[in-house]
Design goal:
Length: 190
């Protein structure tokens, strides 16, 4: 099976479930024989879903990130060991370069013609924190073959990106266990 027309989808918002929705789409697509490539930006460790996805034929994934944490609160470093903390708007050049290399990989994947769906997980968050420009993301979308679907995930989608997408879903946080001090749980949040 091949897609006749590939669209651009965005999963954004401050609620939980953006990556989960994209991975759900990947699993559904693989069930129909579509080939999916997932590129996780701004993530340096593998999450629980990677254990399952590697068992599914037709899905490939890679992680492009570093143990960096972007925040205005420098005390976050006390909560996480071995992370580099930087303020929004001041990303380290080596991290920007890593993201640029990731985008070049995306362009090569698009040109290969091997994949029907490309998921750029957290690329919108990378855009918000100035690791990648809106123009760089638009150039990926412009180079997309007509029969390839692109899914962009991450908080803080700009109006520019929203305007060029065919589908935009906003996950809205109404209530979250973090508010009660419950930290991320293995198998549920990661």
């Amino acid at each position: 099976m091949k897609l006749k027309k590939g669209l651009v989808e965005i999963y954004t918002g401050n609620g939980k479930g953006k990556t989960t929705a994209a991975i759900g789409l990947a699993v559904r697509a693989a069930g129909y024989g579509l080939k999916v490539y997932i590129i996780h930006f701004m993530k340096s460790k593998k999450y629980g879903e990677s254990r399952s996805l590697k068992k599914i034929e037709g899905i490939k994934e890679i992680y492009i990130g570093k143990p960096y944490f972007i925040t205005k609160d420098p005390s976050i470093k006390d909560k996480f060991k071995d992370v580099v903390v930087f303020e929004p708007g001041h990303p380290p050049e080596d991290y920007k370069e890593l993201i640029r290399k990731g985008l070049e990989k995306v362009k090569n994947i698009l040109k290969s013609g091997k994949y029907d769906i490309i998921i750029l997980d957290e690329i919108i968050t990378a855009n918000y924190f100035e690791l990648v420009s809106t123009d760089e993301i638009k150039s990926i979308i412009d180079e997309k073959p007509k029969n390839v679907e692109i899914i962009l995930t991450g908080r803080y989608a700009s109006e520019d990106l929203i305007s060029i997408a065919d589908l935009v879903t906003e996950m809205k946080e109404v209530k979250h266990p973090y508010q009660k001090g419950i930290i991320a749980r293995k198998g549920i949040e990661y």
